[in-house]
Design goal:
The chain is of the alpha+beta class and about 160 residues long. It has a single domain, classed as Gcn5-related N-acetyltransferase (GNAT) (Aminopeptidase, 3-Layer(aba) Sandwich), CATH 3.40.630.30. About 30% of the residues lie in helices and about 40% in strands. The chain has 4 helices and 7 strands. Strands 1-2-3-4-5-7-6 form a 7-stranded mixed beta sheet, sandwiched between helices. A hairpin with a 3-residue loop joins β3 and β4. The chain is globular, with a radius of gyration of 15 Å. The model has no long low-confidence stretch (mean pLDDT about 95). The structure holds coenzyme A. Coenzyme A binds next to β4, α3 and α4.
């Protein structure tokens, strides 16, 4: 577990930096508008950084509904992976979900995203199903891509 990380709310002023990390990390990065919508909807939007530097090392977006939370994404900057940052972020999100009376945390993940699936399984998420062609996006060459999502769930009770 990484103990030096500080979690803060993502603000609009952070979104350009978050978007730059998105571009590096996803074949289907979120546009700034989607992230701003999450802020406007008062979702849990967290960034992780250290006291030493204001640079964003990881971030997450989570929506909390009636007795359930939906983890929309958790991302760690490529330069800061395999140091327990995602684990620390997930721990924080789990606490927030519990405080808000969520009984489960649900998420979707691309079926080809082995690293994330391994991370979530190790954290205790179970695979509950598959959504066919859930992701539709254009790759760097403009080719239309369709990819299935695994639906995973973590029980908080
Ligand atoms: C998936 C992702 C969030 C994991 O982030 P991370 O910070 O590297 O995750 P952690 O460090 O908590 O755990 C990853 C691995 O590092 C290991 N690790 C953790 N702390 C460590 C340390 N101090 N030293 C060495 N290894 C360590 C963990 O045991 C784990 O090993 P495993 O892959 O064999 O299970 C990251 O790869 C990512 O951002 N991917 C791109 C975005 C993405 O796809 N997100 C999911 C969208 S749904």
């Amino acid at each position: 577990m990484n103990h030096n990380i500080i979690f803060q709310k993502i603000e609009t002023v952070d979104l350009a930096d978050v978007a730059a990390i998105e571009q590096q990390c996803y074949p289907n990065p979120w546009p700034i508008k989607t992230m701003q919508d999450c802020l406007d909807a008062d979702y849990q939007c967290l960034k992780g950084l250290t006291e030493l530097s204001p640079e964003i090392r990881c971030y997450a977006f989570m929506m909390i509904g009636h007795e359930e939370a939906h983890l929309l994404k958790i991302t760690v900057h490529p330069a800061h992976r395999k140091k327990g940052l995602a684990q620390a972020m997930l721990h924080r999100l789990t606490l927030i979900a519990r405080i808000n009376h969520a009984r489960k945390i649900w998420l979707e993940v691309r079926t080809s995203n082995d690293e994330a699936i391994r991370f979530y399984r190790r954290a205790g998420f179970e695979i509950k199903g598959k959504r066919r062609n859930y992701y539709r996006y254009k790759d760097h060459n403009g080719k239309q891509i369709k990819e299935d999502a695994l639906v995973m769930c973590y029980s908080l009770i």
